[in-house]
């Protein structure tokens, strides 16, 4: 792989963790997976979003920062590459959807203080999936608190990611998940490995 640190991103249910885990195994890379299940506000948020949005997002940001800070600073003599299943900026993107204007303003100030302290990925692989496919995947993995996520919320998540990608010249490999199946089609996975050998300029590049 050409890159030292890549992150797999996408909407809820896009397949980020599955692909990140497979890539890390293939490359013998350090794997960083988001520990979302430890958030005590997650189920409460899906039941009462207005009441629990701020503590939910604050807890996520603190835990992501702590995890990335610890894992990115720990040298692994046997793994010189890193694969993660989230980008730290997702804290701010989700907060933009869930928080009120005043809460978001405060959250943004906290984010701006800690974000510069983290190593940023060399490349983001973005799994772009339509909402019906996301809902299918969400139902299949059967996490009780996710089963009633509205399409409108998934649509908002998609929109805020697209806005960020358009406005920030990060190296991004955009994958249309309706056309590939990395888990069940070996040829698709091999083509992705080939794609990760290429040197991309900042901006969006499409996985063909």
Automatic annotation (TrEMBL):
Protein's UniProt keywords contain Ribonucleoprotein: no
GO cellular component, one term: cytoplasm
InterPro entries with a match to the protein in the record: DCK/DGK, Deoxyribonucleoside_kinase, DNK_dom, P-loop_NTPase
Molecular-function GO terms, alphabetical: ATP binding; deoxynucleoside kinase activity
Alphabetical UniProt keywords: ATP-binding, Kinase, Nucleotide-binding, Transferase
Domain spans labelled Deoxynucleoside kinase: 6-196
Residues the entry annotates as binding ATP: 10-18
Pfam families per UniProt: dNK (PF01712)
Active site: 80 (proton acceptor)
Record's protein name: Deoxynucleoside kinase
